[in-house]
From TrEMBL:
Its cofactor is Mg(2+). Residues 534-612 form the AMP-binding enzyme C-terminal domain. The modification N6-acetyllysine is found at residue 612. It comes from the Bacteria. ATP binds at residues 388-390, 412-417, 503, 518, 529. It comes from Sulfitobacter aestuarii. This is Acetyl-coenzyme A synthetase. It is an enzyme of class 6 (ligase). The gene is acs.
Length: 651
């Protein structure tokens, strides 16, 4: 961790003069957003079109037992009309989506706003014909193809609530999410090409749907056209239906607080929870942050490399950019296929102006050598962004110097599935960036650093503690699908009256914020968020496993790796084959992103006398940090710790 004295990078003269938000404007707008949030958000909400104007700006309560979050509640709008129809007069022929396929030889596609309108309407009409009505849920399990965006916008158009499941998730994980929100339809594709391989999405969906209600229908987009199994009573061929579907479909009038989507995300306990986002507040916030953080100007080509299966893809590939009438690039592939210059070739080919990716990708590409970057013309780049995990200064510097040639600001955006949009980030025309710092709160965001033990706010600088947010912002999640009590308990019970982020945080001597990582049992593997409890419950579901404890450990490329301590059933012998079997087992249960990196056989786990596993100790061992094991006197059997240290995996 650097501090206030480390090197800073002030905005260039050009950025300072021409960006949407200068240093002075930031101060003025931030002060206004805190002093008069009602007035501030009433004005900002005008960036979207309302079918019926709202009268009340907000109605919020963060008190445990009565948490409610309402923004613009009596207003009405349609999100798809905001992302498409309202742009048609001015930019019907402008490219809305540039689609770049996994295999560069296949050729890119440019989809205009007019085409986006027609395709979205077709998809909306097909969904309607399948019986999907306002308020119904649709699960989307798709490759990164334009049809994924059509499906999202089609749901928004007819008032259905989408829940996207990342295509890397297993059939079991998909089934749990379909059942969790009682979806009527699953939209999927035959296969998902990625990095030269193809995931059999339809076959996965078949396995998942075998565990779901027989009434759930499956709409299949032909991506590769390869053969797939077909169940006539349930499966519908999108490409056939689309030929006859009408290219107009009236957008349904939605209340601002009607849910736009559910997105399952990992928590520190239990199974993933369905984060619910609203229509009005979410869209205002996604659009505003997209425009201001990335300093998006009309005509720019903007590329976010995330997948629509994660919140970043929702807010910053689809909703934010399209609400702003932007040209957004959608990439099907991976950074290293056909080779490690793929990202930079795509930037050159499409003259990308703003590029937004994850630190894990930057670290992986940095390790491949500079020549992959230097052989590409990156002169179109104006701004770089990162998201998903803390970025180490080496990776930041490489990104800034080698990719950005020292000319592009790097916006390190801290936010969460729960927050809907950016919460802290340097703004490119306003702030002197510090490598690794999330810097400043976005408008309306009131970060508080609290003492984790007493819960008291730490005032003044520097400060080091846990991060809470004091007041609501329009992009905030509204509830957990079907479980408002869990929502309150998860986010509002630890620190009374505040939203608790689950992240640790420092504020340096200048008052700038640095995110230090999760303080709960959530880990961040290659920018993918995972609950250690999910991996544990997958492991103990294996009949040879008696007990398992999972923690994160520092990993050069992934940020964090998955370290598993496994106690076998008595009579079972540890072996390399069993290690592989358990690894494959977890991949199968959850998906490849949850593959254990290291599995240590643990004859015993460190437990308190009351039987609680002391994860703090397991974390320290996995981190190779025994000097500070802390108090082990409460352990039922302190000798297990010596055994675990003696047999540690990543020596
Ligand atoms: C972490 C992704 C440091 C953080 C948008 C947070 C970050 C979790 C940053 C949310 C950043 C995200 N610097 N840490 N710029 N961005 N995180 O829900 O721990 O997948 O709580 O949302 O990622 O992950 P999620």
């Amino acid at each position: 961790m650097s501090d206030a004295s480390s090197k800073t990078y002030p905005p260039s003269a050009d950025m300072a003069a021409n960006a949407h938000v200068s240093a002075e404007k930031y101060e003025e707008m931030y002060a206004a957003s805190i002093a008069d949030p009602e007035g501030f958000w009433r004005r900002e909400a005008q960036r979207i079109d309302w079918i019926k104007p709202f009268s009340e700006v907000k109605d919020i309560d963060f008190t445990l037992g009565q948490v409610k979050i309402n923004w613009f509640a009596d207003g009405a709008l349609n999100v798809s009309a905001n992302c498409i129809d309202r742009h048609l007069d001015k930019r019907g022929d402008q490219t809305a989506i540039i689609w770049e396929p996994d295999n560069p030889d296949e050729g890119a596609r440019h989809i205009s706003y007019r085409e986006l309108h027609d395709e979205t309407c077709r998809m909306a009409n097909i969904l309607r014909d399948l019986g999907v009505a306002k308020g119904d849920r649709v699960v989307i399990y798709m490759p990164m193809i334009p049809e994924a965006a059509y499906a999202m916008l089609a749901c928004a158009r007819i008032g259905a609530i989408h829940s996207i499941v990342f295509a890397g998730f297993s059939p079991d994980a998909l089934a749990a999410r379909v059942n969790g929100c009682e979806a009527k339809v699953v939209v999927t594709a035959d296969f998902a090409p990625r990095g030269g391989k193809a995931t059999p999405l339809k076959a996965n969906a078949d396995k998942a749907l075998a565990q779901c209600d027989a009434s759930v229908q499956c709409l299949v987009v032909r991506r590769t056209g390869d053969d797939v199994a077909w169940d006539d009573s349930r499966d519908r061929d999108y490409n056939v239906l689309a030929k006859d579907a009408a290219t107009s479909c009236d957008p349904v009038t939605m209340n601002a607080e009607d849910p736009l989507f559910i997105l399952y995300t990992s928590g520190s306990t239990g199974q993933p929870k369905g984060v619910v986002h609203s229509s009005g507040g979410y869209l205002v916030y996604a659009a505003m942050t997209h425009e201001i953080t990335f300093d998006y100007h009309d005509g720019d080509i903007y590329w976010c490399t995330a997948d629509v299966g994660w919140v970043t893809g929702h807010s910053y590939i689809v909703y934010g950019p399209l609400a702003n009438g932007a040209t957004t690039l959608m990439f099907e592939g991976v950074p290293t296929y056909p080779d490690a210059s793929r990202f930079w070739q795509v930037c050159e080919k499409h003259k990308v102006n703003q590029f937004y990716t994850a630190p894990t990708a930057i670290r992986a590409l940095m390790g491949q050598g500079d020549h992959f970057v230097e052989t590409c013309d990156l002169s179109s780049l104006k701004l770089l962004g990162t998201v998903g995990e803390p970025i180490n200064p080496e990776a930041w510097n490489w990104y800034h110097e080698v990719v950005g040639k020292g000319n592009c600001p790097v916006v390190d955006t801290w936010w969460q599935t729960e927050t809907g949009g950016h919460m802290m980030t340097p703004l490119p025309g306003a702030h002197a960036m510090k490598p690794g710092a999330a810097m400043k709160p976005f408008f309306g965001v009131q970060p508080l650093v609290l003492d984790p033990t007493s819960g008291a706010e730490i005032e003044g600088n520097p400060a080091d503690g846990v991060l809470c947010i004091g007041e609501s912002w329009p992009g905030q999640m509204r509830t957990i699908w079907g479980d408002h009590a869990r929502f309150e308990k998860t986010y509002f019970s630890d620190y009374e009256g505040y939203y608790f982020t689950g992240d640790g945080c420092k504020r340096d001597g200048d008052g700038d914020y640095w995110i230090t990582g999760r303080v709960d049992d959530v880990i961040n593997v290659s920018g993918h968020r995972m609950g250690t409890a999910e991996v544990e419950s997958a492991l103990v579901a294996h009949d040879k496993v008696a007990e398992a404890a999972v923690v994160g450990y520092p990993h050069d490329i992934k940020g964090q790796g998955i370290y598993c301590y496994v106690t076998l059933m008595s009579g079972e012998e540890p072996s390399e084959e069993l290690r592989k079997e358990l690894r494959d087992w977890v991949r199968n249960e959850i998906g490849p992103i949850a593959s254990p990196d290291l599995i240590q056989w643990a004859p015993g786990l460190p437990k308190t006398r009351s039987g609680k596993i002391m994860r703090r100790i397991l974390r320290k061992i996995a981190e190779d940090d025994y000097g500070t094991l802390g108090d082990t006197s409460t352990l039922a059997d302190p000798s297990v710790v010596d055994d675990l240290i003696g047999n540690r995996m990543n020596k």
